Amino acid sequence: MSIKPLLPLLAVASLSACGTDTALSSSFEITQSVFTSALQNMWGPEPEPMRLNISPADIAAIDYDLMLVRADESGALATLPVEDAPNGVKTWASADGFSLTTRDGQIIGTRGFGADILVADVSAAIATLTPESDGGSYSRVYSYLDSENKISEAALVCGLEKIGDAGISILGTPRDTIRFTEICADETVSITNLYWIDRSDGFIWQSRQWISPQIGSLSIQILSRDAEQ
User: Fold this and answer.
1) Is residue 135 a contact partner of residue 159, using CB atoms and an 8 Å limit?
2) Can you tell which superkingdom this protein's organism belongs to (predicted)?
3) pLDDT tens per residue across span 122-156
4) What is the C-alpha separation between 121 and 219, in angstroms, rounded?
5) Burial of 153 from C-beta contacts in 10 A (0-12 / 13-18 / 19+)
6) How confident is residue 227, by pLDDT bands cut at 50, 70 and 90?
7) Which of 3, 6, 27, 66 is in Cβ range 3.0-4.6 Å of 10 for a Cys bridge?
8) Are 98 and 165 within 8 A, CB to CB?
9) Taking residues 116-120, what's their average pLDDT?
């Protein structure tokens, strides 16, 4: 079975646009039984990767950032390569124009989903989420489109808790990470974000991040990381 689109009408990102061949693109296939098993275990104490039918050699041949994204509400799945990364702000785009924008692994914008994040101030979260951190309190501010296509804002008060060491595996490659849980709320919204950050440099290998009340959260794994970024 081919990888499902992230959301209705959102196609799997084309790898050929980033210089890879069609054989690698076609290798991104997943069986329903493995997909279901992986999702059931992903967010446990020792999360399992979302398993794809692709070899470590295939991943080693990729010289750009590649993200695997799951929409938690629908269970739909897609791969998104980085299209642009000026000054550490990365845009991960599908072949048909849907995209996520991240700063240091934190989602700061989306396009094409409907109830998109227009802009998000996550600077305090970025400063606090480090390997040395024991947690802390800060705020997040979101501007997003609601179900009526009107701009809504959410100023959330957040608390970050360090859970501890978490060895994870992404496509068979072990990652030495630290797990954090972030709980944020205002008068109308309450969210929980999860992060697995690299012990050495704080890189976010795996996360679950809230987008908006209509979209819910996205679960993310970084399959390939550009060593120069």
Assistant:
1) yes
2) Bacteria
3) 999 999 999 999 999 999 999 988 778 888 888 99
4) 20
5) exposed
6) low
7) 6
8) no
9) 90
Q: Tell me the C-alpha distance between 51 and 29, whole Å.
A: 9
Q: What distance in Å separates the CA atoms of residue 139 and residue 158, rounded to the nearest whole number?
A: 5
Q: Write out the E strands in the chain.
A: 66-71, 77-84, 89-93, 99-103, 106-111, 117-121, 135-145, 151-170, 173-185, 190-198, 204-212, 216-224
Query: Encoding tokens for residue 47?
Result: 């999360």
Burial of 101 by CB count in 10 Å (0-12 exposed, 13-18 middle, 19+ buried)?
A: buried
| Matching residue, tokens 């061949």 | 21
Contact yes or no for 20/28 (Cβ under 8 A): no
d(CA 198, CA 11): 30
From first CA to last CA, the distance across the chain in angstroms is 33
For the chain, domain boundaries = 64-224
pTM of the model: 0.76
Query: Which residue reads 């000054």 in tokens?
Result: 87
pLDDT at 216: 87
pLDDT digits 0-9 by tens, 174-186: 999 999 999 999 9
